[in-house]
Design goal:
The protein is of the alpha+beta class. It folds into 2 domains: 129 residues; 145 residues, 3-layer Sandwich (Rieske Iron-sulfur Protein), CATH 2.102.10.10. The strands form 4 sheets. Strands 3-4-5-6 form a 4-stranded antiparallel beta sheet. Strand 9 and strand 10 form a beta hairpin. Helix 3 packs parallel to helix 6. The radius of gyration is 34 Å and the shape is elongated. The N and C termini lie far apart (101 Å).
């Protein structure tokens, strides 16, 4: 009869039982053998790894230099690439990508190929006294030493240079938001004036067809631009980004009209800026039953019955209303420009 511990599924000896003595005799296998890297064995491979890291850091610096070349030297040439991206924008994106990618890949390659990769383990303990703090400081010094920052001065200095110049493009990006150097007040003045003026017809976007009051039915919504915008040769997108309007019709008894705005609508037809007062996204969704306008970016919601007052979301200001009327031919026209700046409410408003 065989060993009873080695039975079959039908007999109780099918599962071997661990005895107390077995636990004491089990040996900790420890860490598996760590295979050395080629750069650990071959000095030539180590030098090659250093050159590769150096090249990646230099690529980062070249990317930053390319950014400034594109920013100052290329300009808006009008040359189109693929999906109508201008050459300058393509170069700016490529340069920024090279600057960030070069640093990232260089640091990764340095860590994988040149820094020590031996494995170790030790028990965790509290840093309770000065002796332990000194030990922790010694560990940090060892890490710095093993990283090669002291020995590989060329790589270290190239890394420092790449990191130092990489943020510079961001400074010019932010600077380019307002080249007037006159501060927020100048930006408000830019947003205060659009193509709307007395007698300018409201036309459909993008067809440019004028709109009669009889065309606007209850519950309908039109995306509107000022007449003449499509004919602009330069600055068309800038003007459109300020002047685009949503046109809707509600029952007049649903409208809450504040003093001074009694004549701003035409039999319940109202026009409001399409630019959300949070960060400038286009307000594009109209809920016919609730008469709410919704910005899809951050879900700011405006109540059309209350002069587009903010009822939900992060927007801090109602949508500006465009005063409208009907001309002699029955077409909807503007009475004037907006009476307040359009766009995000973080601009100073007066």
């Amino acid at each position: 009869m065989g060993d009873e511990r080695h039975g079959d599924p039908l007999h109780p000896g099918a599962v071997d039982q661990v005895r107390q003595g077995d636990v004491d005799t089990f040996q900790d296998p420890g860490m598996p053998p760590h295979p050395p890297r080629l750069t650990d064995l071959d000095p030539k491979a180590e030098k090659r790894g250093e050159r590769q890291v150096l090249v990646l850091f230099i690529i980062s610096v070249i990317g930053t230099i390319l950014f400034f070349f594109a920013y100052f030297g290329v300009g808006h040439t009008g040359i189109e690439i693929g999906t109508k991206l201008r050459l300058q924008n393509a170069l700016l994106g490529l340069a920024t990508g090279l600057a960030m990618l070069g640093i990232g890949l260089g640091i990764i390659h340095w860590a994988k190929a040149l820094m020590p990769d031996h494995e170790s383990e030790e028990a965790r303990h509290d840093l309770a006294d000065e002796g332990h703090r000194a030990e922790a400081q010694e560990i940090m010094d060892t890490i710095v030493e093993e990283s090669g920052l002291k020995r590989r001065k060329l790589l270290r200095n190239t890394l420092i240079g790449a990191i130092a110049v990489a943020p510079l493009p961001a400074i010019f990006y932010f600077r380019d938001m307002d080249r007037s150097k006159l501060g927020a007040r100048a930006m408000v003045d830019r947003l205060r004036h659009t193509m709307w003026a007395k007698g300018v017809r409201l036309v459909r976007d993008p067809s440019g067809l004028p709109i009669k009051a009889s065309d606007v039915q209850l519950g309908s919504a039109f995306h509107v631009i000022p007449e003449g915008l499509n004919e602009l040769k330069e600055g068309k997108l800038n003007e459109k980004s300020k002047a685009v309007v949503l046109l809707m019709r509600l029952p007049k008894d649903k409208l809450t009209i504040s003093p001074g705005r009694e004549t701003w609508n035409v039999d319940g037809i109202v026009a409001y800026s399409k630019i959300c007062t949070h960060v400038g996204c286009p307000v594009a969704l109209y809920e016919q039953q609730t008469h709410h306008l919704l910005c899809p970016c951050h879900q700011s919601t405006f109540d059309l019955t209350q002069e587009c007052k903010v009822i939900f979301g992060p927007a801090g200001h109602a949508l500006p209303q465009l005063p409208i009327e009907v001309d002699s031919e029955g077409y909807l026209v503007a009475q004037s420009d907006f009476q307040e700046p359009v766009g995000p409410s973080y601009w100073e408003r007066g």
